[in-house]
Amino acid sequence: MSPDTTAGPLASPDTAPAEASRGLLARLGEPKVLSWIAVAVVILAWELAVIVLQLNPIYLPRPSRIVVALFDMFRNGGLTTDLIATLTRIFGGFFIALVFGVALGVWMAVSVRVRAIADNFIAALYPLPKVTLIPLLIIWLGTGGPFMLTISMLGAFFPIVINTVLGISQCDQGLVLAARDLGASRRQIIRMVLLPSAIPSIFAGIRLGLGVSIILVVAAEMVVGKVGLGARLYLAGQVLETEQVFAVLIVLATLGIVVTKIQDAIDVRLGHWRVN
């Protein structure tokens, strides 16, 4: 009987390319890689469509030209200054909302009287579109820094308050009773039992609030801003600089991706902490 030459070590060189190919396909099929491949395919299709259809760049410029305009705006157009101004307004108002929103949420959760007083105001103001408050805030505060910080703060404040109240209200009462039996004071129960158990819910409010703050600050800059991404976006649209409009939109989209990825990473860490 002749030996089987298709088995054993002699088959390894033939199967190695196939295994490498399967490994490459498996890596390309991973969700994270696949998401960026989808983005690349859309950008390439966009570039080819504009070239083949010979579209007017005023309506839809090529992605390659948008990237050139983006780098030129960062290098010579002052886009870095606009980005810093917008980020300062967003996170300045957001951190104010975080401090006061968590404080009020805790107070409402542990005090029936405070909750009764604040509940109607929050129920009335939370669903109100905050953009509609821009004219009133301009009358009260002008168009400077206090106005921008206030509109950013209003965007994040209510989601943080509501989720803080919800998180503390869902705390296991057995933990509270156990802490009382061990002689913990009211302040210790809040700091060591209620707040830790409410962290995932508070973080959900932070995610919602930060997104609303970004939207409101950019909208406010488009209305009254002289510096900022919203102001740059509005000005570019007024003079029909479509490439610059798309460049600013790319910056805003990148900001959204970065914020979302950071929030996802923190959410994963919080999930491990809660399980442990």
From TrEMBL:
Bilayer disposition of the protein: Multi-pass membrane protein
InterPro entries per UniProt: MetI-like (IPR000515), MetI-like_sf (IPR035906)
Transmembrane intervals: 33-55, 90-110, 122-141, 147-168, 189-206, 245-263
Chief localization: membrane
Any single Gene Ontology cellular-component annotation: plasma membrane
Keyword DNA repair in annotation: no
Subcellular location: Cell membrane
Domain ABC transmembrane type-1, residue spans: 83-263
Gene3D superfamilies referenced in this protein's UniProt entry, alphabetically: MetI-like (1.10.3720.10)
SUPFAM superfamilies attached to this UniProt entry: MetI-like (SSF161098)
GO process terms (BP): transmembrane transport
Family (UniProt): Belongs to the binding-protein-dependent transport system permease family.
PANTHER family: ABC TRANSPORTER PERMEASE PROTEIN (PTHR30151:SF16), ALKANE SULFONATE ABC TRANSPORTER-RELATED, MEMBRANE SUBUNIT (PTHR30151)
Name of the protein described by the UniProt record: ABC transmembrane type-1 domain-containing protein
Originating species: Rhodoplanes elegans
